[in-house]
Write a structure and sequence with these properties.
This protein is an alpha/beta fold and 331 residues long. 22% of the residues lie in helices and 21% in strands. It has nine helices and 15 strands. The strands form five sheets. A five-stranded mixed β-sheet has the order 1-2-3-7-4. A three-stranded mixed β-sheet has the order 5-6-10.
Length: 331
């Protein structure tokens, strides 16, 4: 896999979709067979024509559903932070069709979330029905089965954002220091885009069991030892090359959150471990010899904070390798 830096074509659609505020997100906990859009979705979301794309860039559009103007005066800067996150991924991935991202304000959820709107049946493997999220499917094939609907939902809790995250005033350079105790917003957006692009699954979070509908994601299909007594690892070939061994997948067996401390290159860090992160992130955080690549990676299941500065993480070749293994085109 040759990694090259490229420029990403961006079209920010500055729209306030009041009519779309009743559109319902896909609950990724339900069967992929049931993961369909609501009637409101099919009529309310009418994106502008997307730009003509090539097969060498990560192209996308962004639309904002913010009828109450909750983003306020920071709106344009927040979108620039999102643009920087897309460009960070665009250093590694590309696609055969542009992705439509819908940003929604949702102050009822705990933090931020990112997900593909739905998934499509891909194949049967080892007795399971494997489903591919719509965003990687579209990047891989160029097919757009529902051109009037978004491909990715990014849901934002504005109150939590202003409390815990730092809106980078210069996201195009990402060189300003992040305030102590904060996470830079570009990092958060990039992480949630990673979930929407394929770090996602249907396995039961606390046990690793395949759900009753027998559907699993492509990410799920490349793991093994996902049962409660096992140590799940991701086994994609490009990931093996990037990581140097099988990539440990986050799987905490304790029932609630715990705090761990770490020392890396003489610097002390602290991280909060929570089983809600199981099986859709990498990093075990309990082995003394675990690589810094997973301990400090963007798609890790626990972020390591240090006492003297805030947190900024960039997309790495490890993050990209996982997406390559699930089918996203990579450079």
């Amino acid at each position: 896999m040759t990694l090259k830096r490229s420029f990403t074509k961006v079209l920010i659609l500055a729209a306030l979709l009041v009519s779309f505020q009743n559109g319902a997100p896909v609950d990724k906990s339900v069967s992929p067979l049931e993961a369909t859009s609501s009637p409101e979705d099919t009529t309310a979301f009418k994106p502008r024509p997307t730009p003509v794309t090539t097969t060498t860039e990560f192209n996308y559009t962004v639309t904002v559903d913010d009828p109450q103007n909750s983003l306020g005066a920071d709106r344009d800067l927040i979108l620039k932070n999102l643009q920087a996150a897309c460009q960070d991924w665009g250093r590694y991935i590309y696609g055969k069709a542009p992705i439509r991202i819908l940003v929604r304000i949702n102050n009822d959820q705990a933090r931020f979330s990112g997900a593909s709107r739905t998934s499509v049946f891909l194949k049967t493997a080892n007795g399971h029905n494997v489903f591919e999220d719509i965003a990687p499917y579209k990047l891989r094939t160029g097919k757009d089965p529902e051109p009037r609907l978004p491909d990715i939902y990014l849901d934002i809790n504005v109150n939590f954002m202003r409390q815990a995250y730092w809106i980078d005033p210069q996201p195009e350079t990402r060189t300003l220091p992040v305030p102590v105790g904060k996470v830079d917003l570009v990092t958060v957006f990039a992480h949630e885009l990673g979930h929407a692009l394929g770090f996602n699954g249907f396995l039961e979070r606390s046990t690793g069991a395949v759900p009753a509908h027998n559907g699993i994601s492509v990410f799920d299909s490349l793991m093994y030892e996902t049962n409660l007594s096992g140590s799940p690892v991701f086994t994609g070939t490009k990931t093996l090359s990037a990581y140097g061994s099988k990539l440990p997948v986050t799987f905490f067996t304790f029932p609630d959150s715990r705090t761990n401390t770490y020392s890396i290159a003489g610097v002390n860090y602290v991280a909060t471990l929570h089983p809600s992160q199981n099986l859709t992130h990498y990093g075990r955080y309990t082995a003394s010899n675990e690589s810094e690549k997973s301990l400090q990676g963007l798609m890790g299941g626990a972020w390591l904070f240090r006492a003297d500065q805030g947190l900024r993480i960039r997309v790495s070749n490890l993050d990209a390798a996982v997406l390559c293994d699930i089918g996203v085109p990579c450079r």
